[in-house]
Write a structure and sequence with these properties.
The chain is built from nine helices and two strands, in the order H-H-E-E-H-H-H-H-H-H-H. By secondary structure, it is mostly helical. The protein is globular and about 55 Å long. The N terminus is likely disordered.
Amino acid sequence: MSNNASEKNGMASRVPSFLVLIGAALAAQLLGSYHARSYVIGNYFFLGWVVLRIVMPVAVLAALRVPFPRIGLGLPRFDRTTGKIMIAAAAVLGVAFIGIYFFRGYFSFYSNAFGGAGAGGAARFANFMIFTGSTLTGWEFLHRGFLLMGLSYLLAEREGVRADTAAKMAIGVVWVFEVVFHFIKPELEALGLLAGSPFLSWLALRTKSIWPSFLIHLTVELLFIVTLILQ
């Protein structure tokens, strides 16, 4: 066999790094869906999700030699247009939750969550924040940092895909991940991610940081728990 043929066979047998990245994200969500409840501190801090959504992805990024400055952990870069878009998004969220308040069927799904109505509003809020502290940061790191930024980098730098096309492909992959994960939850949440996921990913890529998306996601969570308590 010629050297050229050997090189082609070697390239064909090599697993592309972007597939390793996607496979690791799938593994994290699969293992967490079935086993995260087995590793809980107290009743609400899900240590399993911290390991699967932060620790394991960091190890994979290191193994793939993805530069950590490229996964959006730095301060965001805002321009006037982006600032206006975030203000508009905040206004839309406020209006949306005013409307969602009247969807009793949606909130009945969570009627016994975080201690239930009998736990009292303050205790329920505290339980929710402990839970959110162990899940939200990991969710944004896994989807916006690891998967979105990591995939954009690997497609552009390792596979020769144009940077703008790589970004669009990464947004699409994250979109599928986030919406499908919410199929186990009320339909309203999956529909929300149908619009919210590409917006948050676009925002992360535009600002080169996961933190604006994190803040918007955190705002959604705070509005949710306050609305739930007020039901």
